[in-house]
Amino acid sequence: MSYLRFHWDHPDDPDGNFQHILENDLTIDDVAYAVRNAVGYGSSRSSELPCLWGYTPDETYIIVIYQEIDEISVRIVTAYKVPEPA
Predict the structure, then answer these.
(1) HSE (CB half, 13 Å, CA atoms) of 52?
(2) What is the pLDDT of residues 21-32, one digit of tens each?
(3) Which residues 6+ apart lie within 8 Å of 43 measured at CB?
(4) Domain locations along the chain
(5) Percentage with pLDDT > 70 across the chain
(6) Which of 28, 45, 63, 75 is the most exposed place for a label (fewest CB within 10 A)?
(7) Contact at 8 Å (CB) between 34 and 55?
(8) How far is residue 37's CA from residue 46's CA, in Å, rounded to a whole number?
(9) Beta-carbon contacts of residue 55 (< 8 Å; ≥ 6 apart)
């Protein structure tokens, strides 16, 4: 999947996706990089939304939960660091 557009909530929205990733010590660039270079796909156990796993530019392994808007656009729900699979 090659997503080119990312929909972000207003940075001041305390419940928005932008704040969710900041709280997890990630940036928009980190998440976009992981999405564009995903190494695995699945579904979130808690929300059943699609998710993917990937690395940030500094090689931090993360999971990204998202909603697909169309073939090239996604709305990130949240992203956070996870242990690499064994």
Answers:
(1) 21
(2) 999 999 999 999
(3) 49, 50, 51
(4) 5-81
(5) 99
(6) 45
(7) yes
(8) 24
(9) 33, 34, 37, 39, 61, 62
Residue 2 pLDDT > 90: no
Write the CA distances from 79 to 46, 83, integer angstroms.
14, 13
Contacts of 29-34 with CB under 8 Å at 24 or more apart are: 29/57, 30/56, 30/57, 30/58, 30/60, 30/62, 30/79, 31/6, 31/56, 31/62, 31/64, 31/76, 31/79, 32/6, 33/57, 34/62, 34/64, 34/79
pTM of the predicted model, to two decimals?
Answer: 0.92
Q: Are 21 and 13 in contact (CB under 8 A)?
A: no
Residues whose CB is less than 8 angstroms from the CB of residue 60 and which lie 6 or more positions away in sequence, other chains included: 26, 30, 81
Amino acid identity for residue 78 in this structure: T
